[in-house]
């Protein structure tokens, strides 16, 4: 058994898939795992560290585009944003089935690798859909809108285009607290992803992000008004905590103004 150890990013996983295909060791004799994962070491397995080589990334993408379809490429990319630690291996096995059956494989839910990719995609899209509704911004004295989220999946690449379309003439920033990265949108320009410096470890180019995070906002009065409105419109006799949790899970609430007490 050969285990290819990949990084969490899409490009590195594609390089792991490239190695698994090109070295020709057989579908059942290889496995892809995330670097630093909790998987147990396998006896007599050979572990190979995967490096990102842009030429290999481009070859895999080109093969998917010419022999398969854009839809399959999209499903692989969304799966790479999943929280699941075994996503590299699931993506590899999905591609094996895709090259075997062609573009129509996306509808073959009876195949376990196809269903697993569909399930992972659904989970990522569902979380992104909820964060579109639950994301809250606060304005700093510099006029920058800042939001902090803590998603299970890496949904920033999906969430940022929505707010870039809705707030094109605003300076805003959405922080993924657990992954220490941010989607940054300068007024009237395209958004981009940036690492968030840890406290006390700011580089010169990222110090302005850290300063925005530390800066106090001027919205305390408005936040109090919003909380008052939220409490006032509630009908105590019809209060249903279970129903509310179904529509608004507890894990989203720490980042929402109306629950930030």
Automatic annotation (TrEMBL):
<dbReference type="Pfam" id="PF13566">
    <property type="entry name" value="DUF4130"/>
</dbReference>
<dbReference type="InterPro" id="IPR023875">
    <property type="entry name" value="DNA_repair_put"/>
</dbReference>
<protein>
    <submittedName>
        <fullName>DNA metabolism protein</fullName>
    </submittedName>
</protein>
<dbReference type="InterPro" id="IPR025404">
    <property type="entry name" value="DUF4130"/>
</dbReference>
<feature type="domain" description="DUF4130">
    <location>
        <begin position="87"/>
        <end position="258"/>
    </location>
</feature>
């Amino acid at each position: 058994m050969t285990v290819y150890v990949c990084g969490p990013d899409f490009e590195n996983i594609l390089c792991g898939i490239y190695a698994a295909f090109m070295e020709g060791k057989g579908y059942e004799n290889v496995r892809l795992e995330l670097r630093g994962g909790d998987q147990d070491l396998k006896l007599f397995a050979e572990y190979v560290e995967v490096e990102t080589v842009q030429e290999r990334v481009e070859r895999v993408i080109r093969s998917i585009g010419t022999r398969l379809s854009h839809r399959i490429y999209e499903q692989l990319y969304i799966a790479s944003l999943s929280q699941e630690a075994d996503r590299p291996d699931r993506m590899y096995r999905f591609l094996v089935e895709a090259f075997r059956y062609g573009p129509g494989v996306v509808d073959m839910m009876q195949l376990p690798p196809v269903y697993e990719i569909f399930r992972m995609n659904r989970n990522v899209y569902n979380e992104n859909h909820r964060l579109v509704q639950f994301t809250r911004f606060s304005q700093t004295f510099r006029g920058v809108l800042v939001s902090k989220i803590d998603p299970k999946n890496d949904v920033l690449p999906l969430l940022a285009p929505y707010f870039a379309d809705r707030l094109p003439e605003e300076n805003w920033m959405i922080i993924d607290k657990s992954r220490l990265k941010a989607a940054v949108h300068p007024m009237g320009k395209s958004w981009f992803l940036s690492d968030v410096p840890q406290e006390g470890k700011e580089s010169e180019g990222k110090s302005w992000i850290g300063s925005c995070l530390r800066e106090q906002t001027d919205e305390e009065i408005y936040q109090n008004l919003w909380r008052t409105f939220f409490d006032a419109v509630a009908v105590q006799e019809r209060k249903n905590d279970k129903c509310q949790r179904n529509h608004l899970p507890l894990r989203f609430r720490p980042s929402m103004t109306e629950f930030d007490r």
